[in-house]
Amino acid sequence: MTDAHSTAPFFPHRHLLGIEGLSAPDIAGLLNLSDRYVEQNRQIDKKNAVLRGRTQINLFFEASTRTQSSFELAGKRLGADVMNMSVSSSSMKKGETLIDTAVTLNAMRPDLLIVRHADSGAVDLLARKVSCSVINAGDGSHEHPTQALLDALTIRRRLGRIEGLTVAICGDILHSRVARSNILLLSTLGARVRLIAPPTLLPRGVERFGCEIFTDMREGLKGCDIVMMLRLQLERMTGGSYVPSQREYFHYYGLDYEKLACAKPGALVMHPGPMNRGVEIDSAVADDVVRSLIQEQVEMGVAVRMAVLDALSRNLPNEAEASAGKASR
Amino acid sequence: MSRTAYLNARLLDPASGLDVKGDLLVADGLIADLGPNLFPDGVPDGVETVDCNGKLLCPGLVDMRVFTGEPGSEYRETLATASQSAAAGGVTSFLVMPNSDPVIDNVALVDFILRRARDTAIVNVYPTAALTVGLEGRQMTEIGLMKEAGALAFTDGNHAVRNALVMRRAMAYSRLFDALIIQHAEEPDLAAGGAMNESELASRLGLPGISAIAEVIMIERDLRLVELTGARYHVAQVSCAASVELIRQAKARGLKVTCGVSAPHLALNENDIGTYRTFLKLSPPLRHEDDRLALIEGLKDGTIDVIVSGHDPQDPETKRRPFAEAAFGAVGLETLLPVSLRLHHNGQVPLARLIGAMSFVPADLAGLKTGRLAAGLPADLVLVDIDKPWLLDAAKLRSRSKNSPFDETRLEGRILRTIVAGRTVFTLDPGA
Predict the structure, then answer these.
(1) What is the pLDDT of residues B341-391, one digit of tens each?
(2) Is the Cβ–Cβ distance between A41 and A202 less than 8 Å?
(3) In this structure, how many other beta carbons lie within 10 angstroms of the beta carbon of residue B16?
(4) Contacts of residue A241 in chain B, CB cutoff 8 Å?
(5) Nearest residue of B to residue A208, measured between CA atoms
(6) Pairing of the two strands A212-214 and A192-196
(7) Chain B: residue nearest A175 by CA?
(8) What would you report as the CA-atom Rg of chain B, rounded to the nearest whole angstrom?
(9) Bridge partners of A133?
(10) What is the ipTM for the molecules in this complex?
């Protein structure tokens, strides 16, 4: 790598636990590197050897299809040995063995640990117990940093910039880690962020997040460049109903062409997936090849995760340092 | 007849307003006499002497809210280990909550606590009893019989009595015995699933919140019932500004209402949770800084009557978990006084008011003859170096559980000696 010899670290963090704490240059650096991996992924030979000899463990305490496969593919394309571990929450008494699991895995000397967990802060807790680099693949309602990075990459490649854009994030803000990471990232890069949701799906104190808040979707979409839809997290709808019915939710907050017309002409549509078609997004909008970036988001996901793995691996101890360290002792 | 003279002490008795340099004589477990220059002709022969070196000698502390694990979860805490922890914290009497396994909800179990405490504890331990059978909130317990057996108050401990009708009847019935009812004021439906104060911070951390309104609504409901029934009602722990204001107004209206606050809630706010520190997961939760300041104001003006430790031992397995799944609670007997003393050192609350809120006020509420420096009362005393700085090492706590939110925290004020009925039950190791 050309920048391997510069004195300042390319990405001065041991883990990627969230967007919080990342600077604009940190983020821009990751996006630039991601652009190179997008090109690599479009070649016939998609592999390099950046992670050769490294072990990557994908530890998923919560079911995931796209994020887990995206990380798996990313690791394999960089030459890492990738192991998938899915620990379903039913097979373990929740959380009880989280630290045990971390300590056990740590003893196998992985270099990179990708973790998803249903509890906010669980990845942070785990990161304190291991000696490898940890990437948060989603913790509870807290953060999902690689999703925000891939969203930013998608926008930047399509519109050429993030700064100055108006982005509306719509739907279940309350439970969404994607929303939290995106708010942080987009604000850091200078976009104006709007949040659109019914009052029951807005978290307490959200007015202090530095976003404009709307409960009227048509009003909120006015002048937006990007409409980012969130999945209505049906599995989290316990403990009182947040919305009366899916039908009523779609009527007021589902994205269809009629509501999309309130946004800037040509405004683009995003969704982190998996979609509830007909609940938060109309199928025709989701599948619109011109307006919808949803497929592109998935492609960017692999590139962004390769960039993150690459960036973190540069801070891992390497063979040269290890042998130099031995020699000096 | 055994006699001990405590010489050269700063005698502080918040109940009488006494604050003088002087001596105190203990005879056969009771305070015999006290005052400045008590022995003008020298200490008589046969009297043991303790030189207090000008340090503070005040009534032993009375803690109205302590959880242990006995019976049922002795691995967390027994009455014996809790009492050792209490002694190290200058607490000479405490009320133990009924949340054990089995629940203290009948006469035999009240008696069990009394007997176990008598046989194993080194400070005075008093049982409270459940207000409803099995803490289930459905049927009131035998309040009269258990009060006769020695239960000092009736409470579902860390459970709120959810059903308003059950509470109404328990309150009305409790008047027959002038029994004290203690409520954990938290509307269970509003608080369900919550892990910390509902706030901007909780939203940023992605943690489910417990709104202050859950506490306020429960207190408001209960105050209406107190008005209706005339019961003696005590809110175990208030945590927010709105609750303080409610109690203030209720007292102004003449209701027999009192409330407590925990020492951690006077010293910490939600921001101290930082990055998911589960040892700061408390019930009620730590709130906003404005709430903390309102609690201090309430303590100062007498709206808040007592300071409690809220001592709740939890083993590491239930604490070293993701925040939302971790257990609530913190140990606090040993830090009750030094943490509370922060308010004295900051000039926020006068020393006598602080000590009073941990001695004669809770003693009077619970109907205990202690908490005062007065001739004829049991010699329950604590000798404190109120200015001594020290660093808390949670591993050295005497409690069987070490879940203190103040680990590695600098504290000011150290217990030198604790005396229960004339007997010294704790002295600070000079090397500590």
Answers:
(1) 999 999 999 999 999 999 999 999 999 999 999 999 999 999 999 999 999
(2) no
(3) 12
(4) none
(5) B200
(6) parallel
(7) B206
(8) 21
(9) A112
(10) 0.87
